[in-house]
Design brief:
The chain is an alpha/beta fold. The protein folds into 2 domains: 151 residues, Rossmann fold, CATH 3.40.50; 296 residues, TIM Barrel (Alpha-Beta Barrel), CATH 3.20.20.70. It is 37% helix and 16% strand. The chain has 19 helices and 17 strands. It has a 7-stranded mixed sheet with strand order 2-1-3-4-5-6-7, sandwiched between helices. A 6-stranded parallel sheet has the order 10-13-14-15-16-17. Strand 16, helix 14 and strand 17 form a beta-alpha-beta unit. Helix 2 crosses helix 6 and helix 9 packs parallel to helix 11. The relative contact order is 0.11.
Length: 494
């Protein structure tokens, strides 16, 4: 079969700071289909410059996050109009099949991990032709016109290990544009050594995206083989290890580091970790530094203990301090991440988070606004507060639901303040002058423009209101309708 796979463009803060990465999940799907013998083309619409044609493809697949969903639907509609079968996958549609599949130009939704289900779908479409029976494809959702109902087929078991899959089909993309993403001044790209996360933070969909196999690792030798190939075949000097939580098993990371060192690979790499794991295993941080780890992303989230409890973060503020200092002592840069605007936070709570970030004084800080995404616990407990009808605004840079005590415009102003105060040139001037990615003056200007921008509705092909009744856009009217006054704050833990 001739199959086209599309990744809609990103308009995130990462893109604004020139951290631009290939659609790795889509490339894994492409790798599976390519190994199956299909004729596969991949388009990352952030860079695609050729004609946007669809008429020669049998099947068009599109991946999307929540903020990419409006554009994903536009591509699906164009492909459908050209006579192609269409499928959509990704975190958003995994949890929105009941609305997505009522659009007559979306034929299939692939839920959860996509490689196995897409492989079965493509094989059955090719072999069965007009006799194709969608009920035979696990993890597939589809619209039964006779029953006038969306059908969610039983889920296929998640893969036991990512090593069971072919490598991502990077050969189907021009990888040169992604070399704009730099680590220690050198081009890097993405890879993974594991999938999933064993924790259950309420703002994250990873716990519900995967099934019982929440976290699965790869063999250290095979992971380092891929890392070495990225350097030798594609000209990268390291990798962003975008595992949901790389350091889940500290013993395995020791194996990974030992393998890198034994081969004498001179690479730089970035990863995500929990602060408490690093603090419990300081020897791991030393080993990571020896193996080329130069940057670690820490989701510290809040400067308020009671908010961390509310989000089921299971970590203390003091652990954040210890982790940043531990990384600093080994020459590893920390990128700390914070979320503001929990439903019951006060202005004082938000200010404490901003001050916490400044006190930590990590190499970089990322701030975002709590956004309830489908599939998360925060969606379930805040969906009756949502007033924004455009999925394109669900980026973490805009307020889309009402809070108890802080108006939306105040929260957005606090987000801008967080960036302005943390990256104040008077306290960060030496780093700004070095033009470090994410810290350059041009990068910060791009961040500022992104924070000020609100996406316009894109024809509202499938608006938020298709899933839930929207709250009143006026905050005071919302609380009048609820017949209650806003509460003061999230109740502090005892």
């Amino acid at each position: 079969m001739k199959i086209l796979l599309i990744s809609p463009p990103l308009h995130s803060l990462y893109f604004a700071t020139r951290v631009i990465i290939p659609p790795l999940g889509l490339l894994y799907v492409a790798g599976r289909l390519d190994a199956d013998g299909h004729d596969v083309e991949v388009r990352d619409m952030s860079f695609h410059e050729g004609p946007e044609t669809y008429d020669r493809f049998d099947l068009v697949g599109i991946t999307c996050t929540t903020s990419q969903y409006p554009e994903a639907l536009q591509y699906a509609q164009k492909a459908h109009d050209a006579g192609c079968r269409t499928m959509i996958g990704g975190t958003h549609v995994t949890f929105t099949t009941q609305t997505t599949l009522r659009l007559n130009y979306v034929d299939f939704v692939i839920r959860g991990e996509g490689e196995q289900a897409v492989s079965i779908l493509a094989r059955n479409l090719e072999e069965e032709g007009s006799r194709f029976d969608p009920r035979k494809v696990p993890s597939l959702s589809w619209y039964d016109a006779d029953a006038k109902a969306v059908v969610d087929n039983p889920q296929i078991a998640d893969i036991k290990t990512v090593d069971d899959l072919p490598r991502p089909a990077r050969h189907l993309l021009n990888m040169e544009p992604y070399k704009i993403t730099r680590l220690m001044g050198q081009p890097v790209t993405t890879m993974i050594t594991s999938r999933g996360c064993p924790y259950d933070c309420t703002f994250c969909s990873v716990p519900t995206l995967y099934q019982k196999r929440k976290w699965r690792s790869r063999e250290a030798v095979l992971a380092v083989n891929e890392l070495e190939d990225l350097c030798q075949e594609y000209g990268f000097t390291g990798a962003l290890l975008v595992d949901d939580l790389l350091t889940t098993d500290h013993k395995r990371i020791h194996e990974l580091c030992a393998e890198i060192i034994e081969r004498g690979l001179k690479v730089h790499w970035w990863c995500q970790s929990r602060a408490d794991i690093l603090v419990k295993h300081p020897d791991l941080v030393e080993h990571m530094a020896q193996a080329g780890c130069s940057n670690v992303f820490l989701g510290l989230e809040s400067g308020n203990e009671h908010v961390l409890v509310h989000w089921n973060k299971k970590m203390s503020l003091s652990t954040g301090y210890e982790a940043v200092e531990l990384l600093r002592s080994h020459g590893i840069r920390a990128l700390t991440s914070f979320i503001i605007g929990a439903e019951g936070e006060t202005e004082a709570d938000i200010e404490r988070t901003i001050q916490y970030a400044k006190d930590l004084n990590a190499h970089q800080a990322q701030f975002s606004i709590l956004t309830p995404y489908p599939g998360t616990a925060d969606w379930d407990r805040n969906k009756d507060r949502i007033f924004d009808n455009n999925w394109g605004n669900f980026t973490g840079a805009k307020v889309v639901f009402h809070r108890d005590s802080v108006p939306g415009e105040v929260i957005e102003a606090k987000l801008r303040k967080a960036y302005l105060t943390f990256y104040n040139p008077l306290r960060r001037w030496d780093r700004l002058l070095k033009g470090i990615p994410g810290l350059s003056l041009s990068g910060l200007w791009s961040v500022w423009r992104t924070l000020k921008k609100r996406e316009e509705s894109m024809a509202l092909l499938d608006p938020v209101s298709a899933m839930i009744p929207l709250a009143a856009s006026d905050r005071e009217a919302f609380f009048r309708n609820r017949s209650q006054k806003p509460s003061a704050q999230i109740e502090a833990a005892d």
